[in-house]
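Batch manifest, entry 17 of 40.
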Amino acid sequence: MFSLRFRLPALFLAGIVVAALVTAALAIGLFQEKTRDDTLTDLRRQAAGLADLYADSALSSAGEGRQAPVFAAARLERATGTSLYYAGLELFPGDRSGLRELSVDEVPDGKALDEGRPQTFEFQPPGEERTYLAAAHPLEIGGQTFGALVVAKPRGELREEWLTLVGRLGIAFLAGLLVAAALVWYLSRRLTAPVLALTRATGQIAQGRYDVELPPARERDEIGRLTASFRQMTERLAEAEETERNFLMSVSHELRTPLTAIRGHADALSEGLVEDADSREESLDVIRCESERLTRLVGDLLDLAKLDAHRFTLSRDEVELRRLMNRAYQARSEEAKQRGIVYEREFEADPVVHTDGDRVLQIVTNLIDNAFAWTPDGGRIEVGLAAENGTVAVSVADSGPGIPAGDRERVFRPFFSGNGSQGTGLGLAIARELANALGGELALESEVGRGTRFELRLPAG
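Output type: structure tokens
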């Protein structure tokens, strides 16, 4: 199988050769036609002039006793490069004119000559093997037509002109082919070199090596854009692999922590190391809490995996957002009292939207859980609901430490938890993905030292 570097120049050169041959064939055909037309025109002009000259000579000779005119045909033939013939009646006794004799039957259209009309034709003279192109002009003496003066030229001489043209075209074709081959070779190298480099890079990437060397995208053409896109793809694959590696490490750590606690207390209970009833009850509580934490973690991981794979199903129902927000708000009211947190709600609207109520509740719950995780005891949390210009906005604001500008995008990544809380670190990542799946968005505003505000915006339609 030939490589692209060979096939591309070969295809270009084949196209150039075919185009050149077609052009040469057309040029030769046109040249042949034009040469024949020019030759016949020249023969007609010579025949007309020589017929007049012969007629004048004949009239002069008639006054001298009807002697054949001295026409010097041989000299005229050498001068014009043609052969002169006379077809018609014998006007003078003897022949001192030097014209070759031609039978009237060899002139195709004798009637045209009788009517005084010139004509052109092809014929083969007696004793000759060559074919001649000829022009016959009526010979008029004293107002009467007695025959025709024929000027002829071998057709083979035209072929010699055609062969000369073919030779020159061949030289031009070879020179052009060499120049085209050089250009095609140069262009093919410029085109195929980056493609071959990308092919080699693809093989390395398939082996898991992302630090591949790519050709520089010097020009803004298709190859340059392909190289730039390929480089972006390589960088994103490397980032995706790094993210996957970190994700697996984080998942392993998050799963190992509750499992270690469960296993430790279970072993202590089974080996009888915990003797009193209070200690046993405390170990059972730890096992129960860690099991619930593990259940939440697995559920969150499943939700995140489904969202990433776009296999998350959503329902469409009429949802009263005010009632849903009250439900999410009241779920943490008791904890707010215990921790001395000022926990307020401000619902300015009572919208009804067509959406998945359970997923909206999940988003709001995750936002409230995040606010309680970051807000210190005695702080402040506000939950709001508003509707304006076809958009419903749900907000959760806290008085926590705030989020630095460099971490505001990272908080939406899985397992990011900067305060050491007991959460899974997946709540905000799931909230953003769910917001996008519902056709909305999750916005973040934060100021270090003064708190953070999340706002879920959903279409009201």
